[in-house]
Amino acid sequence: MYFKFIRPKNELLKKYLEGFYIFETEREEDAMGYLVFPSNHVVISIYKNTALQIGERRVAVKSDPSQKKLLSLATFGFQQPITFAYQHPIREIAFCFKPLGFNHFLENDLKHYAENEMFSFLPFSDYEQEMISLLEERDEDKIQQRIENYWLSKYVEKDFALLEKALELMEQPHTTIHQIADELSISRQHMSRVFNAHLCKSPSLFRKIARFRQTLQNRVENVKKQDSLTSLTYESLFYDQSHLIKDFKALTGMSPQKFFSKNQSFENGRINWFFPD
After folding, report:
1. Residue 103, burial from CB neighbour count under 10 angstroms (0-12, 13-18, 19+)
2. Which residues contact 258 (CB under 8 A, 6 or more apart)?
3. How many domains would you assign to the chain?
4. Beta bridge pairs of residue 94
5. How far is CA 18 from the centre of its chain?
6. What is the pLDDT at residue 96?
7. Rounded to whole angstroms, how far apart are CA atoms 4 and 139?
8. CA-CA distance, 200 to 132, in Å (whole number)?
9. Closest C-alpha among 169, 268, 258 to residue 218
10. Global pTM value
11. Are 15 and 127 in a shared domain?
């Protein structure tokens, strides 16, 4: 298995794109599966010579040389774990856009493109040809340059000042959604509409997932310092340990102890894959 996460160099792109990763299984006998968990990021994965079977909370990825067309899968908005099963040698490139970030590269609101939790994503007339060529490139420096040039060519300046302020206020400890709406001088209903249009989530769900994801990043340092689960609870702004356990079970289907026993973190907890037995 080969995995490499690459961050953008362009200063403008850094504001919206967390980075991209290259993932490969190289041998015919390679077969693996892992779980991915709810995130506020938008992830676009591209494949060539590959067949995808998409079921309920499961994606089977299989090598198929007869499939010449690009497969581009958008994954976001899900609230329960999704299993990715790789059955044969696969090459995948995935773009990880920050919350709200992908809206800057689309003509319409994010909600306009969201058919369901996972869907085929071919947004531009030149997208398929460019992405197929990208998958055929092996030089990682050239891959990065081409990715950054392509997404910069699609950049659209948009004003998300209200949403950006809302996301900033959400990081404050124990601030309620009602208080955030009051601070922004808007109704909770309007706030929900704006969140759903550009983030495809309600404010409460966005915050729940954001806190969960922050916990995964905090866990990296927590382990280094050999701190307890209780320390992690309050560092991650949960009310108490039972609150943390409740959210973990809702978003992962398991307790924090079981989750952390098999979870594999990349990029200091920003990317997390759970490898079951």
Report:
1. buried
2. none
3. 3
4. 21, 45
5. 9
6. 96
7. 13
8. 28
9. 268
10. 0.89
11. yes
Domain range enclosing 138 = 2-153
Tokens of 193: 């509409």
CATH code: domain of residue 233 = 1.10.10
Mean pLDDT, the chain, rounded, equals 89
pLDDT in tens, 117-166: 778 889 899 999 999 999 999 999 999 999 999 999 999 999 999 999 99
Angle formed at CA 237 by CA 245 and CA 171, multiple of 5 degrees: 130
Mean pLDDT of 103-124: 86
Question: What pLDDT, on a 0 to 100 scale, did the predictor assign at position 30?
Answer: 64
- Asked whether 1 and 24 are in contact (CB, 8 A), the reply is yes
Please give the Cα distance from 106 to 86 (Å, whole number): 30
Task: Note whether 59 and 112 are same-domain residues.
Answer: yes
What are 243's two structure tokens?
Answer: 């609150």
For residue 32, the model assigns a pLDDT of 83
